[in-house]
Specification:
- The chain has one domain.
- Helices cover about 80% and strands about 0% of the residues.
- The protein has five helices and no strands.
- Helix 2 runs antiparallel to helix 3 and helix 3 packs antiparallel against helix 4.
- It is elongated, with a radius of gyration of 16 Å.
- The N and C termini lie far apart (about 35 Å).
């Protein structure tokens, strides 16, 4: 009985860290630090997905500096990025280990050595 309670507590900790990873860039850093010693695989998965979203957001910021075409791409990209963020956040809350739409599989490749 006690091991079941320990497994639930460990899973709950991983879920908490995974959820924090999606709450702003500072949340991503906090989740990374919280997971450093625990190395929970669920939390690590969502930290990598959130890091991918942050990198995509930074790329959109740079693209947005290009007049006109960059602005259009940036505006559309923000909506897509927001959609991807919501899906990732909901996956963390619902304890699902599935990639965010569109670029989630690429994020797994890009940050696999983290």
């Amino acid at each position: 009985m006690e091991t079941t309670e320990n497994n639930i507590a460990i899973a709950s900790e991983g879920k908490k860290i995974a959820t924090i990873a999606y709450i702003t860039f500072i949340g991503l850093i906090i989740a990374f630090v919280m997971n450093k010693d625990k190395e929970d695989s669920f939390a690590t998965y969502h930290i990598k997905q959130s890091l991918g979203l942050a990198i995509t957001g930074l790329a959109l910021l740079v693209i947005g500096m290009i007049p006109f075409l960059g602005w259009i791409i940036n505006i559309l990209g923000i909506f897509v990025l927001l959609y991807m963020w919501v899906i990732g956040f909901m996956n963390a809350i619902n304890e699902k280990e599935s990639p965010v739409p569109f670029l989630g599989e690429k994020y797994k490749e890009w940050v696999k050595n983290m």
